[in-house]
Structure formats: structure tokens, C-alpha cells
């Protein structure tokens, strides 16, 4: 089989025309004409910095109220943006107000350190280095 040579057949004009027609129809099936163009949202946009001394780049442009509103809204935290949580992880700490009013005068909840004469004396001794805390 390796010694066999394949004879090349020269196609006639009718056969060549049929091949070109099939190729043309295949191209028409696969091509799509785009008339509306837009930026690819999946591709990062590289901005080019402006020239600092160019007069047309330094013209004052009017502020776009819709854009500024969008930027200011994005700067807010989720509690200012939404009335309820949007994800399950936001549920943790969403209601961060204390359940009990933290009054400092209420003696039932606040147990402050009380210093008497003996506790002041012992605290001073410990600060000076006496090591008999466990006696």
C-alpha cells in the first residue's frame, strides 16, 4: 500500500463550480452580520489617561445627576440600601441593636469594681511587686 501512488484527478469546470457553490453556501450559513456594536462586559476596560495640557480635555463638563446618585448609593452600607437582608450571611448582625437597654445605673446588670481601703492597699502592694496573691 505504501508503494501505491494516488492519481490526481483534475476536476472539470462543472465540478469546480459545484465545490465553490457549496463553499459559498456554507459561509453564508455560518456568517452573521452585526449592525449593533457594544463593549464586551466580560473584558476589562483599560482607560487611557488624558493629556494634562490639552484644552479640550480640561473643559468643565456638567455633572450627571444620575451617575452621582449611583456613586453615592454605592458608597452606602447594605443597611442603608436595603430594607431586608439580601443574602444569608447578611442576616448575622443585621439587627445589631442591643436587646437590653444598656443603662449604666442599673445595678442588676452592671457589676463594677468597688475599691475599699483594704482592696486599695492590696492593689498597691501587688503593683509594687508583692507576690502573695495566692496566699
UniProtKB/TrEMBL annotation:
| Location within or outside the cell | Cell projection, Cilium; Cytoplasm, Cytoskeleton
Tell me one Pfam family matched here.
FAM183
The UniProt annotation puts the region (Disordered) at 78-106
Q: What is its main location?
A: other
Q: Cytoplasm: present as a keyword of the record?
A: yes
**UniProt KW keywords:** Cell projection, Cytoplasm, Cytoskeleton
Any Gene Ontology CC annotation: cytoskeleton
The record, for InterPro entries, names: CFAP144
Return the similarity comment: Belongs to the CFAP144 family.
What is the protein named? Protein FAM183A isoform X2
Organism classification: Eukaryota, Metazoa, Chordata, Craniata, Vertebrata
Gene name of the encoded protein: FAM183A
